[in-house]
Write a structure and sequence with these properties.
Order of helices and strands: HHHEHHHHHHHEHHHEHHEH
Largest sheet: 2 strands, parallel
Strand content: under 5%
Radius of gyration: 21 Å
Number of helices: 16
Number of domains: 3
């Protein structure tokens, strides 16, 4: 039985605590309003969507269930909005050599893992995007990614990543895993990917993970097929998406792409060392039931039920723990005290990050759907 230590049990108290999130939603999402009825409806629905889910986190006392709904819907609608923006900007979701040469490619946060070495050694940004202007510029994305990583650590992967909702969603389709045991050692493969991709990209001065391996090209932008190489890249993209984002999460109920393959996940894990927030096991309450380890979608709980460096702070282990031993914690504060406050203080920046990074895309996608089918 799940614990309900965090349930406010009060509609009024939960509503009052939700008000700051409503104000943040109004502030961050109102900037794209044009006066068109579809845009206004998209704005209102998006604010209501995020606000109601945050309210339910507080009122029901569970993080992961309501976070996942927001995260999955956000990822899918982000892809809809992103691809529509590309079609409006350049007429296609594919890109050509000419668009690479003219730096018209929106910056993806995963590229952060591949630009660090060239930037440090050769003072060169190897991604073919705009430094400061246009849609998803390099400078703005770097500030957001690095800033949020310092605050949340790998929490970025559960609250801010544009793509994480895809494998999170597929991992929840089946009620029980078909493959019941996944070797936890696979979690370290993502760190090997991080190192290999960083060195490979530094050697070639090209973001090689994005060029060859990223599965999310299928739901964003990809190479136009003009020769054997670009055909091969598209085939690899389909294989990685179908295997890592769809099939294996369906079979294992784990976020396999994020847990074992994504170099960004490994990069973000390093920030867990300096992040203010982390998940801890209060051993005085732990009954060694193993529910936290079994439920963790990122293979981030050790055999002795302790969160590891790759914990993405999704909140599932906190929700599943029957005794409240698994807790959100603020570094430097006494363990086991004020854990409800620590949880709330974590939720505000984490959820604000989701709204800030993906919320406008959700509103735009809703507006696009309304304009296409109704208005």
């Amino acid at each position: 039985m799940k614990n309900n230590l965090y349930s406010s049990g009060s509609i009024l108290r939960s509503s009052l605590l939700t008000l700051p999130m409503v104000l943040i939603s109004l502030l961050m999402l109102s900037q794209g309003l044009t006066g068109h009825l579809a845009d206004t409806i998209g704005f209102v629905v998006t604010v209501a969507f995020y606000s109601s889910l945050f309210f339910l986190m507080l009122y029901k006392g569970a993080i992961d269930k309501w976070r996942a709904i927001a995260f999955i819907v956000s990822a899918v609608l982000f892809s809809v909005s992103f691809m529509n923006n590309l079609i409006n900007l350049r007429g296609s979701v594919t890109y050509s050599d000419e668009e690479i040469m003219t730096c018209e490619i929106p910056f993806c946060h995963i590229v952060t893992t591949m630009i660090l070495i060239p930037a440090a050694i050769k003072q060169t940004i190897i991604f073919p995007g705009s430094i400061a202007s246009g849609f998803a510029s390099i400078s703005s994305m770097l500030v957001i990614v690095i800033g949020s990583s310092i605050i949340l650590g790998r929490g970025f992967c559960s609250w801010g990543c544009f793509y994480g909702g895809w494998d999170d969603g597929f991992s929840r389709v089946t009620r029980k895993p078909i493959i019941k045991r996944v070797n936890a050692a696979y979690r370290w493969f993502a760190f090997a990917m991080f190192i290999v991709m960083a060195l490979w990209s530094a050697a070639t001065l090209m973001p090689e993970y994005c060029s060859w391996l990223c599965p999310f090209k299928l739901v964003t932008e990809r190479d136009a097929i003009v020769d054997t190489e670009t055909l091969l890249k598209n085939v690899v993209m389909l294989i990685t998406f179908g295997t890592l984002v769809v099939a294996l999460p369906l079979l294992t109920k784990k976020r396999i792409q994020c847990a074992t393959f994504c170099p960004m996940g490994a990069f973000e894990s390093l920030f867990n060392k300096i992040s203010l927030f982390h998940v801890v096991n209060n051993e005085s309450k732990c009954i060694k039931c193993g529910k936290c380890q079994k439920s963790c979608p990122l293979l981030a709980i050790s055999k002795d039920n302790k969160p590891l460096i790759n914990c993405a702070k999704c909140g599932r282990c906190v929700d599943e723990c029957p005794t409240g031993a698994m807790q959100m914690h603020i570094k430097g504060t006494p363990l086991g005290k004020h854990f409800t406050v620590a949880r709330l203080l974590f939720l505000y920046p984490a959820y604000s990050l989701m709204i800030t990074l993906i919320g406008s895309s959700v509103a735009n996608a809703i507006s696009l759907i309304l304009k296409t089918f109704i208005f």
